[in-house]
Amino acid sequence: MRTFVAAVVQFRASGEIERNLDKATRLLRAARAEGAEFIALPENYAHFSLPGSKPAPIDSLRGAITSRMADLAGELGCYLLLGGQPERAPEETRYYNTSLVVSPGGQILGHYRKRHMFEARLPDGTTLNEATTMLAGSEIVTVPTPLAVFGLSICFDLRFPEHFRALGAQGAEVLTAPSAFTRATGSAHWHILCRARAIENQCFLLAPNQAGRHGGKRESYGHSLIVDPWGEILAEVRREEGIAVARLEARKLAEVRQRMAVRPLPIKPRIYKEEP
Q1: Does residue 23 carry a catalytic annotation?
Q2: Which residues have a Cβ under 8 Å from the Cβ of 269 and sit 6 or more positions away?
Q3: Full residue range of the structural domain in which residue 116 is found
C-alpha cells in the first residue's frame, strides 16, 4: 500500500436512474476536486427500488450504467468504487447486486456480487427480504491496485466477520463496504460494525452509505465513514448529502500491524464424548 487520499460519497438515491447518476457525478467531481484518488459510491447508487415501485434496470456487467461511470473515471483520472448495481443473473426473476472497481483508465479491475442477503423485520413492522429479488454471489474478492489491495463487500456483509477475515487472508489493506443501512439498524449497529471490521482485520475501511427517506417507510441511516486500522474515524458525512475525504497513511497501516499481531491461528477441532 502507498499513502493516498480516499473519499466516500453519500446521497439519497431514488427510482430515477438519470437523476441518481447526475447527482453521483456532481459529488464525484467534488471529491476529486479535494484530491481524492479513490472514491466510493454507496450501494444502490444508480437505482433504489422499493416494494411496488418500478423495478431496477437490469443490465450486464459492462452495460450502460457501468460504461457511463467508467467514462467518468477516465475523465476524472481516479479509481471509482461503483458501490452496488443490478447485474443480470442466470435466473430471469432475480439479479446480482454487484460492486465494481474501475481504474483511472476506465477499465473494470474487479467485481464482487453480494453474498449475504438482507432479511429483517424493522421496528415499524416493515419486512425486508432481498432474496426475493436478488441472487447471492459466492466469491470472496480482493482487487490489487497501485494504491492498495482492496477487499470488497456490500452492506449486510458487515455482519459476517468471516467474510472480512477471508479478505484479510487474501491480502486486503483497504476494506470497502458500500451500504444502504436502514435508520433503525444503522443507529444501533453501523458505527460498531464498521469500526470492528477495521480493527479486527487491521485495515482501513471505506463505508459510503445511503441517507434519507426513499419513499414510503424506507429510510437510510447515512453517516458514511472512513475508518483507520486502529478503529479511529478519520472522516464522516453526517448530513443527508455530501462527501467525506481522508488521507490513508501507509505508515499507519504498518504501525498497527507491527504493534499487535492478530493473525488467526489454525483451528484443531476436538469433539468430547461421554465416557461409557
Answers
A1: no
A2: none
A3: 4-259
DSSP-assigned states of every residue in 169-213: HTT-SEEE--B--BHHHHHHHHHHHHHHHHHHHT-EEEE-B-EEE
* 3 state SS of 192: helix
Looking at 23, 37, 43, 173, which residue is catalytic?
Answer: 43
User: At 2, phi and psi to the nearest 5?
Assistant: -120, 160
Task: Identify the CA nearest to 101 among candidates 206, 244, 23.
Answer: 206
Calculate the alpha carbon distances from 182 to 127, 226, 248, 270, 273 in Å: 12, 19, 27, 40, 45
* Those residues with Cβ within 8 angstroms of residue 68's Cβ, 6 or more apart along the chain or in another chain: 21
Q: Write out pLDDT tens, residues 238-275.
A: 878 999 999 999 999 999 999 998 877 777 777 777 76
The CATH number of whichever domain residue 129 belongs to comes to 3.60.110.10
Concerning whether 114 is annotated as a catalytic residue, the answer is yes
Is the residue at 90 inside a domain?
yes
In a domain, 276, yes or no: no
Give the integer Cα–Cα distance in Å for 115 and 96: 9
Is 155 annotated in the active site? yes
d(CA 39, CA 30): 10
Q: How many domains does the chain have?
A: 1
Cell 468471516 belongs to 162
Residue 85 domain flag: yes
**Does residue 220 surpass a pLDDT of 70?**
yes
| 270 within a domain of the structure (yes/no) | no
pTM over 0.70: yes
Among the options 37, 114, 194, 203, which is catalytic? 114
pLDDT at 51: 59
In this prediction, residue 222 carries a pLDDT of 97
User: Which range is least confidently modeled, 6-15, 77-86, 114-123, 195-204?
Assistant: 114-123
Among residues 78, 155, 194, 203, which one is catalytic? 155
